[in-house]
Amino acid sequence: MNQTLNIGPLALPAVLPLAIVALLVASAAGAWAGKRTGGKIEKHLYGMLFAGLLAARVAFVLQYLDAYLATPWRMLDVRDGGWNTLAGAAVAAAYGVALALRSAPLRKPLAAATAAAAAVWITGVLLLGATAPQGTQLPERSFAAADGTLVPMAAFRGKPVVVNLWATWCPPCRREMPVLQQAQAQRGDVHFVFLNQGESAERVQAFLRTQPRPLRNVLLDTHGEFGAQRGHRALPTTLFFDAQGRLVDTRVGELSAASLAERLERATGDPR
Fold first, then answer.
1. Among positive and negative, which fits the CA dihedral 59, 62, 65, 69?
2. Same domain, 114 and 229
């Protein structure tokens, strides 16, 4: 489920509004059930949410601690999308069970809220999956390099491929570029393709000259078709393809070294 929701100029990962809707429905269902038992559940739902999010982040940071040691402050920067969903769900569930065991009036509201949230989440995931745009294979078409050479995307098959959609005017694109540059230098088993969105060759070349290390496989998507065809208009967006050219993961937003390592594991099957 890697789609984005476009609201005017704003693009959000589809899971974010889905999670908000699930929380609101859970709160309403819990409040309705609590009228009969006298159990007020709203603050407890937010407690479960906070505990789950905290556990998900801490578990992710511990899992990829080595990647954070060079820049420890990034442990607090949740914009990198680093979450351990299983750990978060387990802690949130344990929190809810503890509440239910401690307070009988909360049991029915908690059950109603949990069931409502699960129903909304599962329905939303199924709908997003059914309406997901086609094109989950690495395309066969060619893109021009900054020097005018045409490069076929098919030339990258045979290894996992990371396609980064970026632009020089995009601050998070520029912030994550050193992480991707370092990965490209270190990971010879993966092709990294930097597909610029909608800018001229001259502008891209001027940007590349400011970079401290060379960047390979910089291509130009002058009309932004690659991301648009896959439902992604936000920048930066990074798509991860396996060695057979199948899309296996997408990150909408800035990557850190840790969140990049996590997604490379999924694409390569190699937990480095």
1. positive
2. no
